[in-house]
Design goal:
This protein has 193 residues and is mainly alpha-helical. It is built from 10 helices and no strands.
């Protein structure tokens, strides 16, 4: 069954094994990232669009990178690209650390977008998936803590903040967590009143 679905997912392009070039796609993706960092967003979008055209159906890296670029101008398109990256991961056999972190980033970015639009239940589920794929990825745990805090789940929020503190090497993040922990209870009480 999975094989049949995979064939549908890959589509007619499987008839031509030269239809995709992942090496070229990832070179274009790196160029796109460089252009965006240099402030040339439109050129970055043009390059990442070319990268998507070249990328094979199981290429997670290019789709996640494309989602992050499109998120600056078109959140709907970014969401579609993150979901395509997750779909590609499900069908692929790649389970190396880099690929898992990329997929976790896709789930996390979906989570953040949904958290910002107050879709907390969906956001929380995507953050959980991010942690399932990459257990040491602290960023989604931070968003989960914020959501638990909004739900007045004091113990779970504190536990998640503590995990963020343990996993992050970022001094700014650690300081933020140290500041947040004593405030969690007060915040939860204010939500209940």
């Amino acid at each position: 069954m999975k094989t049949a679905i995979l064939l549908v997912f890959i589509g007619a392009a499987t008839l031509n094994t030269n239809a995709f070039d992942d090496i070229k796609a990832e070179k274009l993706q790196k160029l796109a990232d460089e252009q965006v960092k240099a402030g040339q967003l439109q050129r970055g979008i043009e390059l990442i669009t070319q990268a998507l055209d070249e990328a094979g159906p199981l290429n997670v890296r290019v789709r996640v990178a494309a989602g992050m670029i499109y998120a600056r101008t078109d959140k709907t398109q970014a969401e579609k690209l993150y979901k395509k990256a997750i779909q590609a991961y499900r069908f692929s056999t790649a389970r190396d650390r880099t690929t898992r972190r990329l997929v976790a980033m896709a789930y996390n970015n979906l989570c953040v977008m949904q958290h910002q639009s107050d879709s907390l239940e969906i956001a929380y589920e995507n953050c959980k998936e991010a942690v399932n794929v990459s257990p040491n990825f602290w960023y989604p745990m931070k968003t989960m803590a914020l959501i638990k805090e909004a739900w007045a789940d004091v113990n779970e929020a504190r536990s998640l903040y503590q995990k963020v503190y343990e996993l992050s090497n970022d001094k700014g993040v650690r300081l933020h967590v140290t500041t947040m922990l004593p405030l969690v209870y007060e915040s939860a009480v204010s939500h209940m009143n």
